[in-house]
Amino acid sequence: MVSSDHNDQSESAETASSHGELQGVTGTLTSRSIRSFVIRNGRMTEAQQEAIDQWLPKFGITFRQQSIDFEETFGRIAPTWVEIGFGNGDALLHMAEQHPEVNLIGIEVHAPGVGHALLGIQSKQLENVRIIQHDAMEVLQHMIAPQSLARVLLFFPDPWHKKRHHKRRIVQKEFVDTVSERLQSGGLLHCATDIANYAEWMLEHLQTATQLVNESGTHDFVPQPDWRINTRFERRGLRLGHDVFDLLYRRT
């Protein structure tokens, strides 16, 4: 699972939380040895903790090695989008408000972000959002049925700047193959980053996917789609002079 707060992450803590069960993550993680995240001791406010205690039982989905029944979970049949590493939930809540006709599942490991998103879900009275606090790759592989998603969204994942840490980037062959299998025909994968090196990395790996077609006329990047708002992490990157890159791929 990734976190959107890549500017705050210390990559020196790369192995401390790589195995076994992780604090603040529901369910039991398997022994997948290389993860795209570390669990940080972020500050949890009292309101965030209260939101987790009160609202996660209602809006959360517990990790299990069984495919989610979307109709049962949301009480309706509707296109389902998944956002990986939603950070504080800014984009997730925006999409839920702007697209009430869509079911949204947000995946995030960090408890403060989960608490913040739950506060927003409750205050905005959103009924089309569910949250899974677990490793995104395990969720995709074990809880999402093949060809069941209309959209997968990956906004500003941890870039793991150092070359020796590139193996921890979530966009790898395993991720690309798994997302390709989970998307419906015509479904979209939307990635965004403000790190130029990671943008090229994403492009290189996604170009190898035989079932994904780049929606850019120039086979590289697209203008920012209207469903993605600027998050505070993106605004921080822009203040630092970073360009922002959006990649959009459609499942054939």
How would you describe this structure in keywords?
single chain, 252 residues, alpha/beta, 8 helices, 17% strand, globular, disordered N terminus
Question: Can you walk me through this structure?
Answer:
The chain has helices spanning 46-59, 70-74, 90-98, 111-123, 136-143, 173-182, 196-206, 232-239; strands at 80-84, 103-107, 129-132, 149-155, 183-193, 212-214, 245-251. The protein is α/β, with parallel strands linked by helices. A 7-stranded mixed sheet has the order 3-2-1-4-5-7-6, sandwiched between helices. Helix 1 (46-59) packs across helix 4. The longest helix is centred in the N-terminal third of the chain and has 14 residues, at 46-59. Residues 1-31 have low confidence and may be disordered.
Q: How many whole angstroms does the radius of gyration measure? A: 17 Å
Query: Number of helix segments?
Result: 8
State mean pLDDT (0 to 100 scale): 86
Helix/strand-derived category reads alpha/beta
- The CATH architecture is 3-Layer(aba) Sandwich
Shape: globular
Helix content: 25-40%
Count of domain modules: 1
Q: Sketch the major β-sheet.
A: 7 strands, mixed
Short description:
The chain has helices at 46-59, 70-74, 90-98, 111-123, 136-143, 173-182, 196-206, 232-239, and strands spanning 80-84, 103-107, 129-132, 149-155, 183-193, 212-214, 245-251. The protein is an alpha/beta fold and 252 residues long. It has a 7-stranded mixed beta sheet with strand order 3-2-1-4-5-7-6, sandwiched between helices.
